[in-house]
Specification:
CATH topology: Creatine Amidinohydrolase, Chain A, domain 1
Distance between the termini: 20 Å
Number of strands: 5
Shape: globular
CATH architecture: 3-Layer(aba) Sandwich
Strand content: 15-25%
CATH superfamily: Creatinase/prolidase N-terminal domain
């Protein structure tokens, strides 16, 4: 653990605020109306416990402070639920998955914009090399504009190994104490 903190302090450049975005998988179709069997993004499932497609888990926090977990899910739609099964919806997500707050996936861009306004410098953790959810990926690329850099697969793997070590015993609260940076 000491090696992790040494690495973090060497590379953080004073940035202590972190924004971690972990998208769910999306439903893939073999033909126009016939979907493949759905398989959730393993990282998203491990950290949230949510099996719903087209969602995203956003973890925010500072080193040593409380961390906030926010789940972005699809809104309830009775017609779609007839065909795809029930959805948790924004209202039920905090109680069911143990996150601090939940919003509609369509609010992700305004959430990130609000986060940027309140935190001028932060570290964004997102796997640009393996985007699981096209809408989330598009939102983050639009947010970063021309300044985005691809995170190497090794760095993301290293981040996730550190992330799993730093998670507290209460996974349901989704507390994160990650303070490394990959360049």
């Amino acid at each position: 653990m000491d090696d992790i903190h040494k690495h973090a302090s060497k590379h953080d450049n004073g940035l202590k605020q972190h924004l971690v975005v972990i998208p769910s998988a999306t439903k893939v179709y073999m033909t126009e109306k016939i979907p493949y069997v759905f398989r959730q993004n393993t990282d998203f499932l491990y950290l949230s416990g949510c099996l719903e497609p087209d969602s995203a888990l956003v973890l925010t926090g500072m080193q040593g402070d409380d961390h906030v977990s926010t789940l972005f899910v699809r809104e309830r739609d009775m017609h779609s639920e007839l065909w795809d099964g029930p959805r948790t919806g924004v209202e039920g997500a905090p109680a069911l998955f143990g996150v601090d707050q939940a919003y509609a996936l369509t609010d992700l861009d305004s959430f990130i914009a609000s986060f940027v306004r309140s935190h001028r410098s932060f570290i964004l953790w997102y796997d640009f090399m393996n985007p699981h959810q096209p809408d989330v990926h598009r939102t983050l690329r639009d947010f970063l504009g021309d300044t985005w850099n691809k995170v190497c697969a090794f760095c993301f793997l290293s981040y996730f190994i550190v992330l799993t070590h730093l998670l507290s015993e209460t996974i349901t609260k989704q507390q994160l104490g990650c303070d490394i940076i990959c360049k």
